[in-house]
TrEMBL record:
Gene name, Swiss-Prot/TrEMBL: psuG
Residues annotated as binding substrate: K98, V118, S152, A153, D154
The protein's enzyme class: lyase
GO molecular function, one term: pseudouridylate synthase activity
Subunit structure, interactors included: Homotrimer.
Pfam families noted in UniProt: Indigoidine_A
Record function comment: Catalyzes the reversible cleavage of pseudouridine 5'-phosphate (PsiMP) to ribose 5-phosphate and uracil. Functions biologically in the cleavage direction, as part of a pseudouridine degradation pathway.
The protein's required cofactors: Mn(2+)
Sites where the protein binds Mn(2+): D150
Protein name from the UniProt record: Pseudouridine-5'-phosphate glycosidase
Organism: Streptomyces venezuelae
Catalytic activity field: D-ribose 5-phosphate + uracil = psi-UMP + H2O
């Protein structure tokens, strides 16, 4: 049944008011909540991330699609549905799909409920007029790319979306050098935050360098302003913010368990959208939860920094 919506996306009143008053707003994705973290911890994390944004004086705008309506800014009940905690079978839990930007049109047309990945979140947030987005780690080129051609839609979308994405690099389950190369080819600006090393998601350092370093939120905002001044292709800025070394996953454990995860993924023939959640879930179990703590530490740091960048941007 075709659906009709007056405005896409629907922006919550709180987010709309903040944008109108030029107050800082930070977009948050929902795939990490629905598919990237184990339940029931995921709901607490979703709420915690919003609270962290507020504690920094900014307004959080979690993005998702509910009953075919793309939304920027969720209320408590909407966040609970995405986390699968409504218990009422109203499309929550397993019924929450993972939506990249290409999935938005069919989700709208069919009235589906789903969590948005980096690509869908960046797209909807930019459409709503948001400029700053915080997440964990981006998708990218998978290690089996030559065989599977699996490159996250995150990369191409960020090559044509004017938004600043704070992340802990790209997920270390990926081919990180290939992903950095693709970002260069696609023309996406990458800034290390207080570092000249590209972060490794669970690890503070992926072993690869970055060309540019920002020392504070004002410097990031200055890059954003320069992007607008140039009026070049509508591309993103990645702010690569490393997890604190004290909170990173033990690198030796990381390398060992990741090799097991990749082998298991191959053996089971996991493909497509299922690959990233499978690998993240495997790592959580195989590290006894240590990868989850490192993942959360990275996301928390990114969300806090996102709020500060949004404040610097709003203050310009
Ligand atoms: N960061 C995390 N956990 C996640 C993701 C990012 O800490 O689960 C999600 C993001 O939504 C990202 C997606 O867009 O993983 C990438 O999935 P894929 O590789 O299928 O494009
Ligand atoms: Mn993929």
């Amino acid at each position: 049944m075709p659906q009709q919506h007056s405005a896409v996306p629907v922006v919550s009143e709180e987010v709309r008011e903040a944008l109108d008053r030029r107050q800082p707003v930070v977009a948050l994705e929902s795939t990490i909540i629905a598919h990237g973290l184990p339940r029931p911890r995921n709901l607490a994390v979703g709420a915690e991330l919003e609270a962290l944004v507020r504690a920094e004086g900014a307004v959080p705008a979690t993005v998702a699609v509910l009953d075919g309506v793309p939304r920027v800014g969720l209320d408590k009940a909407q966040l609970e549905r995405i986390a699968g905690a409504d218990g009422a079978g109203g499309g929550g839990g397993e019924g929450v799909r993972k939506l990249g930007h290409r999935d938005l049109a069919p989700a709208i047309a069919s009235g589906a409920t789903g969590a948005t990945t980096v690509s869908a979140t960046a797209f909807l947030a930019a459409r709503a007029g948001l400029r700053v987005f915080a997440t964990g780690g981006l998708g990218g080129v998978h290690r089996e790319w030559a065989h599977s051609q699996d490159e996250s839609a995150d990369l191409a979308l960020l090559a044509r979306t004017r938004i600043t994405v704070v992340c802990a690099g790209v997920k270390s389950i990926l081919d990180v050098p290939a992903t950095l190369q693709r970002l260069e080819t696609l023309g996406v600006t990458v800034l290390g935050y207080r570092t000249d090393r590209f972060p490794g998601f669970y690890l503070a350092d992926s072993g690869l360098p970055v060309d540019w370093t920002a020392r504070d939120p004002e410097e990031v905002a200055a890059v954003m302003a320069a992007q607008d001044l140039l009026a070049g292709p509508e591309s993103a800025v990645l702010v690569a913010n490393p997890v604190a070394e004290a909170e990173q996953l033990d690198p030796a454990l990381h390398d060992r368990v990741l090799a097991e995860a990749l082998a298991e993924c191959r053996e089971r023939g996991v493909t497509g959208q299922a690959v990233t959640p499978f690998l993240l879930g495997f790592l959580v179990r195989a590290t006894g939860g240590a990868s989850l703590e490192a993942n959360l530490a990275a996301v928390r740091g990114n969300v806090r920094l996102g709020a500060r960048i949004a404040a610097a941007w709003a203050g310009r």
